[in-house]
Structures are given as C-alpha cells and as structure tokens.
Amino acid sequence: MKSLYIPNEFRVTARRQSIASPKYISFVFEVAARRPGRPTDERRQLGNSGEPPQPTIRRLQRQRVYQQGSCILMTVMIFFTLSLLLLTGLHRQLEYAIHITHHEQSYLQAYNQAASSLNWGITRRWSLKSLQYNKSRYYGKWTCETQAFHGLKACIKAAAASNLLWLKGEGTVPNQTQKIVLYQQVAPVIDLSAIDLQKVVGIAQRWLDFCPERDEKFCAD
C-alpha cells in the first residue's frame, strides 16, 4: 500500500473539520500532493514535472555494460566460426596434398622399379633363338624373366624393322593394376663360346617410356 505525505497544517485542519466528509478528504489529499515538500511515492514515480522518470546514470551504465558484454560475446562467436571455417579449409587442402603426394610417391616407386628391371635385363643372358619376326606382321611373344625377391621383370623381343632387339622393364604401381614400362633398344653381343644364351648391350639414345613401334600390338604382352 502506497503512503502519501500530508503536511501538519492539513492534518490539524482535517481534525477540526469532519474527517468523514469524502469531499474534504479528497481535497486535502489533492492539495497535499501538489504542495512542495517531501515527495510522495507518486511524485517519486512521476518526478517534479509530472513526466515519467528518466533512466538514472547507474541504470544507463548497467545497460551499457550489458550491451558491451553482448557485443564481446558476438565477436567471440564470429571469431570462433571463422576459425572453424579456416581450419576446415586447411584440413581439406592438407588431405588433397597428402593424396597427391601419395600418388607421386607410388609413381616414382613404380618408375624406379621399371628402371631397375631394365638395367637388370641388360645384365642377363637371353635365348635369342626364341625371338622370331615374321614379315606377315605377326610378332612373336615377349620372352620374360623375373626376380621375385626385388619384384623385377624384364622382357625382350625382336624389333619389327631391323635385326635389333627391344628390351623392356616393368614396374607396378602399389595397390593398383597400372604398370609403368620402359623400353631400351639393344643389340646382341656375339659370343662364340655361348651356344644358346647371348648377352645384349644397350644402344645409346634409344631409350623410350612408350611403345617404340607404330603398331601397339607389338607392345602387348
């Protein structure tokens, strides 16, 4: 229940007059509310001018602190969101780089294996009697030798338009069926002491990493 301050002079007057009169009591309260003095609850709410009270400095400071806290929280959330997007992009780029590096490593491993097979095939002795070439465009099969310990495979075959030979070394890409094949044109080394097996020597500037003949069937296994 709200209390209303009434000056003493009006209290004395109220005692002398009939207090039971509602008209006089309302007049006293109305005059007391308008007189300057200690403000009543209503005047405290409306202020001296009768207008709604304005926000105090402390309340404004609290609102300002609250607004600043909300801005800081939004800034932190935006910062974390941008950081998450940046980390996601970096993670994808890293996965892509690892994928490319893995493919390059597999290719280099297969390439080195093919080069090793080719060098190993040059040091071998081959049975040249099994190498045949027919002018009817029928090519004989590749004669191959393998070394299981190092995974080497070298094959030799007579060239289509000359008395020379083609030697190829194969390398397999890990976890794939794709092969890398290197070719080297070689010439037989005549050795009268060897009846069947003959050595070969590589010809300079005759190294290829694709099929040396126009007809691709020549390079088929």
From TrEMBL:
Keywords: Membrane, Transmembrane, Transmembrane helix
Listed InterPro entries: DUF2509
Transmembrane annotation, as ranges: 71-90
Entry superkingdom: Bacteria
Chain intervals for the UniProt region annotation (Disordered): 36-56
A Pfam family reported for this protein in Swiss-Prot or TrEMBL: DUF2509
Name the UniProt record assigns to this protein: Tfp pilus assembly protein PilX
The species this protein was found in: Candidatus Regiella insecticola 5.15
